[in-house]
Amino acid sequence: MGKLVVLNLGNGDLNIGFPSVTAQLSEDGNSLQCTGSLPPAPELIQLYRRWQLLYRLLYESFDPSFGWRRRGIDEEIEIDEEDITHVSAVEFSNLCNELQNRINSWLKSESFRNIDQKLRTKLAPTDEIRVIMQTKDNWVRQLPWHLWDFFEDYPKAVVGLSAPEFEPVKLSGKSAIEPIRILAVLGNSLGIDVQKDRAILEQLPGAKTVFLVEPSRRELNRCLWDKQGWDILFFAGHSSTERCQAEPDDLRSQAEPGNEERGRFYINKKESLTISQLKNGLRSAINRGLRLAIFNSCEGLGLAQDLASLHIPQMIVMREPVADLVAQEFLMHFMEAFSSGESFYLALREAGERLQDLEGEFPCASWLPAICQNPAEPSLVWPQNVSSSSDKILPFRRIFTTIVIAGVVVTAVVMGMRDLGFLQPWELQAFDALMRSRPQEAPDPRILIVTITAADVGSQPPKERGGASLSDRSLAQLIEKLEQFKPRVIGLDIYREEAVKADYQKLATWMRKSDRFIAICKVREYDNNSGVAPPPEVPTQRLGFSDVVPDPDNIIRRHLLAMAPLSPCNTDKSFSLRLATRYLADYGIRAKLTLENNWQIGSVMFKNLESNSGGYHGIDDGGYQVLLNWRATDAVATQVTLSDVINNKVTGDKVRDRIVLIGTTAESFHDYWSTPYSAGRWPHQSMAGVVVQAHMVSQILSAVRDRRPLLWVWPKWCEFLWVWCWSAIAGILAWRNSSVLRKVVAICGAIFLLYGLCLGLLMLGGWVPLVPSALALIAASGSVVAYTFYARNF
After folding, report:
1. Does residue 360 sit in the same domain as residue 400?
2. Whole-prediction pTM value?
3. Same domain, residue pair 586 and 690
4. How many CA atoms lie within 13 Å of 601's alpha carbon, on the beta-carbon side?
């Protein structure tokens, strides 16, 4: 806007007058200053207070369906000193005229005439003029300054309010080519319709609007810290200006210790905030380019005064409570004019004057909008031609070809690295991270784990147990206690190469004859390990090997179901498979090998893992292996100790019809393994072997009985297509975003989306390429950026 008039009323108020008033006229670096004064006018306070009272009572008498954007939707208006029960439109109109006449009489005072005449001498009726009113007196700030005759004579002059102290904002700067970014907060909407405000904002040309509907304080504050910055902060809902004692953290407590007004706006049905409660986030937003705040709600001058302490360039507020329709019409007219190229001040004047159409229903509607301005900052200008940052736009077909070719090349390179095994460590770590990110599951109710703790080991006479963790006497006692509760299956995850002593023949007989007892042995490996023989009393059909297949980083991610028997452990099925199939046999469910050489239990197929499945490269795929879908829980099953069972501390409901696993957790026996969950805990926590076996048993039972998904991988061509799609997405993002910052943000967002999709697919059982896709995203975006830069500049 062409000319700026700053009218500083200095110290004083309406009761004592303003002894030192300064007017400064500025244009293109040239300035003129003149001085004067204004006499006391306490009657203006009384007139305005009466106007406020009648205004609010008049609006309260309207149809409630009009809506009322005021904080006290359920409050009654306080009536001080007068008992007014009826307001006539004529009486209110007369009061409006009286207030207007009194304001003009005051401004025509002899002591102010010098300023008035100097301004009129230097200004032309065709000039666009910003008139900034600086004062500490809240009553002066509330006066309808647009009623001054000066604004009638100068149709392109608009008044704005300003804090007495201000300073320029050090902006990080937003590119002028970027569209206007609007953060629109739709707060507590009880009794009003903020969706119409939303519809207006959604139709704005050259703007990107992010809506927060009844956000929490944390959500709003997080958005204010957005690194990309905002141009406009918009609020629609309920707000108020309240009188209260100044608090120590008040933004104005040092500059204006006597000021007792504070704005409050209601962001949802439960929370209301003051500007002080968001000052850090607002200050960050202002420093990143926030130039305008619009509070399309009631009594906004308190909010404006608080926000001015942060030196925001501009604000639009409503002086008094505002009807819903008035707020909507103002927003529509203002945004229509401003976004079409009208200057900020003239757009507001036009929108305010057009509210006069509503004054038959809503008296003084045109009085309500007010600008609050930081004089050190220029007005916001709506960009009219938002386009790409470069005039050299590559033809679509050419860039599309580039994206496709870059995607294919990048995908081929990444997948080639994967097939050579370079990505396996990263992919396995990513697999573990996805495993740990899954939501919690409930423990498996079909399993009970009886642990032999270090205390249990120590409580047994060393001569009885020898070097084992469980003596014959303790095992016999344990079995006797468990059997009385009728478990479905008992599995002993403890090596017992020696026969049961003669004193415990009842135990030996039970081990030999019970079809619900499964024991373990260990297969001879190809190195010097000779394996571990099974208990002599247990027949082969009730033996299961305890062997597991850790990956090169010693983490268990695979489940070995079966393999060709090797002495001394002459069984072809794993301990977990024996336990699960014995349990399922009671339901008539059988296990078999299919013609494709896969294990099938009931209707569920356990497809063999191949040496290059998923993120693996060249692993030993001997036997029948599947991926282990660890149960996402802190405890896979209920755990009790040996002493708990022997001392009758375990009730029958914990044992009856369950698979009971017995195993050692004493660290001295070194039966601990690393799992995908180990790396996510500090310090590093391994898992006892008996708990690992419980996870494996649970995987089989849950897949067959609960339809819990087994883990699967895509064929290679499908994985290649998946990675190529992400490389193409990266190319498109790099092409469509002009600034480096926006490219980086877009790629980071795509990586987060990729992770989320991979996690979602893993919850459905799918292990899909995460690391190759992330590498393709980065590489493809870099390739497209490099190509477009070269094409535009060389």
Report:
1. no
2. 0.54
3. yes
4. 24
The whole-angstrom distance between residue 384's C-alpha and the CA centroid of its chain comes to: 33
**Identity of residue 78:** E
65 shares a domain with 43: yes
DSSP string, 99-113: HHHHHHHHHT-HHHH
Question: CA 378 to CA 292: how far, in whole Å?
Answer: 11
Beta bridge partners of 674: 555
Residues 248 and 327 in one domain: yes
Cβ within 8 Å of residue 720, ≥6 positions away:
411, 415
Tell me the C-alpha distance between 350 and 360, whole Å: 18
**Domain, as residue range, for 268:** 180-373
Work out the angle at residue 430's Cα, subtended by the Cα atoms of residues 427 and 434, and round it to the nearest 5 degrees: 135
- What is the DSSP secondary-structure string of 123-150? --TT--EEEEEE-S-HHHHHS-GGGSHH
3-class SS letters over 155-212: CCEEEEEECCCCCCCCCCCCCCCCCEEEEEEECCCCCCCCHHHHHHHHCCCCEEEEEE
Cα–Cα distances in angstroms (integers) from residue 420 to residues 48, 426, 714, 773, in the given order: 82, 13, 18, 16
725 shares a domain with 694: no
Backbone phi and psi for residue 176, each to the nearest 5 degrees, phi listed first: -65, -20
70, part of any domain: yes
- DSSP conformational letter for 465: H
Instruction: State the total domains in the chain.
Output: 4
Q: Given phi > 0 = left and psi -120 to 50 = alpha, else beta, which region is 52?
A: alpha
First to last CA, the chain: 41
Among the listed residues 139, 420, 191, the one whose alpha carbon sits nearest the alpha carbon of residue 305: 139
Cβ-proximal residues to 403 (8 Å cutoff; 6+ apart), any chain:
728, 731, 732, 735, 780, 784
Q: What pLDDT shows up at residue 255?
A: 37
Closest listed residue to residue 16, CA positions, set 164, 113, 136, 100? 136
CB of 61 closer than 8 Å to CB of 53: no
Pick the last residue of a domain from 672, 688, 705.
Answer: 705
Looking at the domain assignment, is residue 385 inside a domain? no
Q: How many residues does the chain have?
A: 794
The two three-digit tokens of residue 188, written as one number: 């507590």
Q: 135, 138, 119: which is closest to 127 by C-alpha? A: 119
- Residue where one domain finishes, among candidates 655, 684, 705: 705
For the chain, list residues with pLDDT below 50: 65, 72-83, 175-177, 246-259, 386-394
Does residue 318 come out as left (phi exceeding 0), alpha (psi in the -120 to 50 range) or beta?
beta
Q: What are the residues facing 24 on neighbouring strands? A: 6, 33
Q: Is the dihedral of CA 279, 281, 284, 286 positive or negative?
A: negative
* In 451-523, alpha helices (H): 454-459, 462-465, 472-483, 505-513
Q: Rounded to an integer, what distance in angstroms lies between the CA atom of residue 15 and that of residue 44? A: 9
Q: Please report, to the nearest 10 degrees, the dihedral formed by the alpha carbons of residues 404, 406, 410, 411 taken in order.
A: 0
Q: Are residues 401 and 487 in the same domain?
A: no
Residue 196, domain CATH = 3.40.50.1460
| Residue 700: partners with Cβ closer than 8 Å, 6 or more residues away | 576, 577, 580, 581, 601
Cα separation, 176 vs 171, in Å, equals 13
| Residue 364 belongs to some domain of the structure | yes
Q: Quote the CA–CA distance of 441 and 698 in Å, as a whole number.
A: 12
String of b and e for 216-244 (b: at least 16 CB within 10 Å)?
eeeebbebbebeebbbbbbbbbbbbbeee
The strand pair at 369-373 and 314-318 is best described as antiparallel
Same domain (yes/no): 618, 720: no
Same domain, 132 and 155: yes
pLDDT for 528 equals: 58
Are 308 and 374 spatial neighbours (Cβ–Cβ below 8 Å)? yes
Q: Is residue 510 part of a domain?
A: yes
Task: Return the structure tokens found at 187.
Answer: 């707060």
Distance CA 491, CA 513 (A): 14
